[in-house]
Structure formats: structure tokens, C-alpha cells
Amino acid sequence: MSENKIIKFIVTRQEDPNSAPYQEEFEVPYRPNMNVISALMEIRRNPVNTKGENTTPVNWEMNCLEEVCGACSMVINGKPRQSCTALVDQLEQPIRVEPMKTFPVVRDLVIDRSRMFDSLKKVKAWIPIDGTYDLGPGPRMPETKRQWAYELSKCMTCGVCLESCPNVNSKSDFIGPAPLSQVRLFNAHPTGEMNKEERLETIMGDGGLANCGNSQNCVQSCPKGIPLTTSIAALNRSTTIQSFKNFFGSY
């Protein structure tokens, strides 16, 4: 009798960045194949808590709804993940939903991921192109390299790996697993390799590789299965070679 089934949610809410968080309980009518986002939509449509009190609609972010954009990241039953692929049937009740704690809360489940985006800027996670004129065909990437580089390119900057990493916190300037993996990706690109040394020098400094504690939480939590720890190991080798170049190049 799924039409009579009720799903209970406990949502951690926060009015603004400076206010204290609090929990509010909601009940949502069950539907087959329901995910957390569809439940939040029901709450938004009828924002009444279990006490029968009218309240404000819960705020959260979403976009693609198919685990591609990374916008709907939140902590569900203690695990950081995408709410679009979190199916109610696979979750223990009551379902507890809260914002990721690594990032500042804007309101309710909406967070400010500027820390991660600033880190991507810091490591120059792009390929600089001077001008928009035709540069001709670029160098080709070997197929074996292209295959593993494609796996790294699946990163959707969801922030889940930073949330699960114990070394990413308010007392640390560690840039986190995702930006490090992007360094490996762009250094492997035939054109991006032009800025290889610059990227390596960046992660050899404060907040870089030395801050990684190798807990491996990141690779276990990544929703896209990106081999983050493999990238970090490869970057350790690359930065070691770069440090030797720096040392002997100074003589």
C-alpha cells in the first residue's frame, strides 16, 4: 500500500551564514523510485513540518538531476553524496539531510563552494589559449593516456571528496583531492603540459601535496569513481622529479 506510506525527513536548516543551525522534521507521501530531491520538492510545495506548523521552503541546489553537474551535494544519513541519485527505498529512515560541513552554509542545504573553485584557479585547472584565431590541429594524445585521462575528466566539482577528507577543514589550507587530480589531468594534456612546471610548483607549496594524509576517504566517496589516490601518488612522483630539477638547475 505505497499510497499510504509516509517517509520521514529530518532536515538541518540554517536561516543565513551567521545564524545557528537547527533541525526540522517533515513527512512526505511515498512514491516508487523517489529520490531525495523529489522529496525536497514535495516539502517545498507544502512547507508544513510534522508539528503542523507552516514554515519556509527548504533551500537546496540542483541542476542536471542525473549526477553530472555536482550541484546537489549534501550529507544524507551521515554520508556526503548526490541527492539526485539517493533513492529513498535504499535509505534508512528517518532520512537525515544536512549541508556539507567543509563549506560555509549560505542557507539550509545551500553551501558556498568557493574554496574548491579558488583552488582550481590556484592550480590553473584549464588550458590557456592566447587569442581566438585558428591555431591549426593540436597534438594528438596517445589512446592509452586518453583513456585514463578521460576518467579524471569526469570530475563534476561536487565537493564530496573534500567533505570526506579529514585534512580539508577550517584550520587547514589544503586544496583537497579534486584540484590535485585536475593538476594531473591538465599536465597530461599535450597543450596543457606547457604549464606543467607552474602547476607542480603550486602544489609543492602551502596547502598542496604535503597536506594529504592519505586517508583514502576521497576515492571511496567519489560518486564518479575517479582514481584520486592514484593521481595523488603520480603527483608525488612528478613533484619529486621537479624538486630535483629545481635543485640541480640552481647550479
UniProtKB/TrEMBL annotation:
The keyword Oxidoreductase applies. InterPro entries: 2Fe-2S_ferredoxin-like_sf (IPR036010), 4Fe4S_Fe-S-bd (IPR017896), 4Fe4S_Fe_S_CS (IPR017900), Beta-grasp_dom_sf (IPR012675), Helical_ferredxn (IPR009051), SDH/FRD_Iron-Sulfur (IPR050573), Succ_DH/fum_Rdtase_Fe-S (IPR004489), Succ_DH/fum_Rdtase_N (IPR025192). Gene3D superfamilies: 3.10.20.30, Alpha-helical ferredoxin. Residues 146-174 form the 4Fe-4S ferredoxin-type domain. Its cofactor is [4Fe-4S] cluster; [3Fe-4S] cluster; [2Fe-2S] cluster. Its EC number is 1.3.5.1. It comes from the Bacteria. Keywords: 2Fe-2S, 3Fe-4S, 4Fe-4S, Iron, Iron-sulfur, Metal-binding, Oxidoreductase, Tricarboxylic acid cycle. The keyword Iron applies. PANTHER family: SUCCINATE DEHYDROGENASE [UBIQUINONE] IRON-SULFUR SUBUNIT, MITOCHONDRIAL (PTHR11921:SF29), SUCCINATE DEHYDROGENASE IRON-SULFUR PROTEIN (PTHR11921). NCBIfam families: dhsB (TIGR00384), PRK08640.1 (NF006391). Belongs to the succinate dehydrogenase/fumarate reductase iron-sulfur protein family. This is succinate dehydrogenase. It comes from Alkalihalobacterium chitinilyticum.
